[in-house]
Structure formats: structure tokens, C-alpha cells
Amino acid sequence: MIRQEQEVNLQEIRKFSHDFKFGSAVSAYQVEGPNPEPLTDWDIFLQQHPDIVSPNEIGPQWNIPGKAEADIQQMANLGLDMQRLEIPWWKIEKNEGSYDDQELQRYKDLVDFTRSQGMEVMATMNHFALPVWVAEQGGWESRKTVENFKKYAAFLAEKFSDIPYWITINEPQLVVNAGYLVGEFPPQKTSLPAMLKARHNIIKANKSAFDVFHSQLPDAEIGITNAMTWYEPRNPKSTKDKALTTLLNFIDHNNYLYATNNAVKFTGGNYFLGMDVEFDGKLQWVKMREDAEGIPGKIPLGHTVKPDTLPKNPQSDMGWPVAPQYFYDALMYMHNKFKKPIIVTENGIADRDDNMRSFYILTHLIAIHEAMKRGADVRAYLYWSTIDNLEWRDGYGPKFGLLALDQKTGERTLRKSAELYGRIASSKEIDIQMLSQEFLSNDQQQDLIVFLDQINNR
Ligand code: BGC
Fold this sequence. Notes:
The chain is of the alpha/beta class. Helix content is 42%, strand content 17%. The strands form 4 sheets. It has an 8-stranded parallel barrel, surrounded by 8 helices. The protein has a 4-stranded mixed beta sheet with strand order 7-9-11-10. Beta-D-glucopyranose is lined by residues 27, 30, 170-171, 174, 227, 270, 272, 346, 384, 391.
């Protein structure tokens, strides 16, 4: 079918249905860690890399009762409908087979509090960090982890039977690729057999947890979050660029979407950035990032480059290109291949000075709206993250939060872009002209027109 070229209409008001959910997300380790007495493999990793977190930096301290509640309350005040939290395995089951009642109560209180603020909870069972004892047994390379994870799932399903949305594992492909193939995450392995074993086990672990939940809590929505960094060919006419792009999308996430599709009720995606792929014929090993900027990276026979689709070249503080048009492509891929409800489980930008975040949120929500107009059944969008936090091996440098955290005093300030997000969430509509005039710079308004033109005519 040939689509008619459409004019950009800035006066358009894009409406979401009343039951579409807007929210924000955190993971436990990033807001509660690190732990001086190691509880997780990440504590050990960070102790081995003392340059990542400096001793005088404080994180959001969600381990202190009251801190998390105050932040969640700010999200509720913005008009958000959902909060994603992790109920961390490494706190609840610090030693194999023994569950910590006090910690359990802490998370129960947090869930109850979130609900008392009128928000739904989406709970993650595992977001990267593993309990030390699990890591010592071989982490995802060990079959025991599958069994132990299943037991943890049964425990959670029993104790938190009223949580309606569940994520089994966050970004399994990143855990596997970064941890066992590229060596950038714990356990820092660079071995293809180790990677394949970890992949096999993590997919099995998802299936067993899903089966447990499905039988114990048949009404719960349960899924996985996939890292959906999206690749497009640098030169759409080059067969080599196109072939490499398909391969990279497949290795990076699509194979996980297929492998877990029989054990999810919705397709979950975390989307942050998109890149172009260029064939160069070089036989090189995978390198996720070539420099401190985060990108580009190398892959066998090619490399990734920043897309030049938005003329003002917007990017995050980490150098990640802002590519909302590729988010639209990723959503349409998920929709066309799986035809399940989609939940955007993370989307956000590291932007300390908050110059780019309003543009980022606005354009990514428009991408979702456009995908929904064309049939994608997107049910919810969670901004990453609720508050500035520990960005794994990048330490506290990158600032993703709707809430800015002062790392000396622990004080929080709501960023201006959070106001834009709150306006959209509470009205369930995007008044493009009004919001862009109020929140975007002139350059961003120009990029917005280019973006609208791109997705209208995609
Ligand atoms: C992870 C988050 C992380 C974010 C930004 C996602 O891959 O789930 O933990 O903070 O990306 O890098």
C-alpha cells in the first residue's frame, strides 16, 4: 500500500486512551546499592574497580525508609499511574534457602505505599545484580541458578500475590552478552561457550518463573524486558549494510524476543538509542563502545555510527544519539512479529542539565502514539528513571532522573522536564504545539518538525 505524503501538523493533539499507563522505573541496586558488605556480584565488581564509585558520593538511599516513599509520592503528584520497582533477590534471599522477613516487610510496605498513592506496581524479580551465593555457584552459567530462580519466583508469587505486573529478568541479552561474551559486566567473561550456556539458562529461568506465575497468579501480566537498541543500515541501498543490520538486531535482541515469546504475556522493551550500521569488512571482535563517549562500537565485519536523521544531532551526556524515529521502528517490529500487548519498560536519557529531556520524552511519546495509530497495542510507558542513580559501570556520572539528586546532601529537585511529562501523563494527551513552545529550544522545535515528518511518512 502506498501511503500519501503527510504534512506536519503542529496543532495536532495526540490523545492516549484513558487506561494507557504512564510511569517511571528504578532497579533496586541502582537506588539502594552499593553495599559495603558485598551482597551481590556487582558489589564485588565495584570493589574491584574503585574508580567507578567514589566514597563520598551518595545515591538515592532507597534502603532508608522514607526516602523511596518521598520520591514515589513526587511521581504520584506528577500524575503518573505506575511505578516499576525491583524486589531484589539479593536482599530477600541473602543466603540460599533462607528468606529475610525484615527485608520482605520493607518491600511489602513499599508496594502498599505506592498503591496508596494511586499507582500500580510493576515488580522486577531480577535486574542484573545476583546474590553473592548465586554468583559463587556459577551465576547464569549454572543450571542451579535456573532452579533457584524458580524457587524465588514461587516465593514472590505467594508473598506478593496482589502485584498485577511482573518482569522476570531485566535485559537478559545484556546480562549474557556484556557479562559472558564481552567481559564488561560481572562475571567479566569473554567466552563464547560461557555466553551460550548463560543464554540457555537465562531463557530457561524465564520460562520456569513464567510457569510458576502463570499457575499461581493466572491474572498477573508477566513479561521480560528486552534491550531494544535499534539498528538501521547506514546506506539503505547497500545489501551489506542491510545484512549486517539484520544480523546485529538479531544478535542484540530479536533472538531473545523469539526465544522468550512462549513465556511472556506482553512484549517488554527498554529503548534508549538507535544507531546505524556500516559494513567495513574488518574481522574484529565485538566492542560495545569504542571510547568513553559510549559509542560507536565495533562488530565483526562492521561498526556502528551515529544516525544523522535529526539535523541538530541531539545526543545524551553519554554520547547516545537521540533517535525517536528508530524507537517507532522497534515498536512496529515488536508489534508485527508478535502481535502481543507491548509495554515500554524503560525509556530515558542521561541529561544532567535537563536541556534535552523534554525533547526526548515528547518525541518518544509521539513515536508510541504513532505506532498505536498504526495498530501496535502499547499499554504502558515507563520513563527511566525516577531519580538519578548508579549507572552500573558508569557510576553516578550519568543523570537519568526525573528527580535530580544532590549527591552531597541527598536533596531532590524535580527537573523541569518532569513537569512536561506530568502534563502529558495527567491529561493523557500530547498538545504538541503548546508543549513544544513551552519546553523546547528553537533548534529542538526544528528537529521536532523533521521527526514528525519522518514518522508521518514512514
Ligand atoms: C538498564 C538500566 C540502565 C539503563 C541506562 C538499561 O539497560 O536496564 O539499568 O540504567 O539501561 O543505561
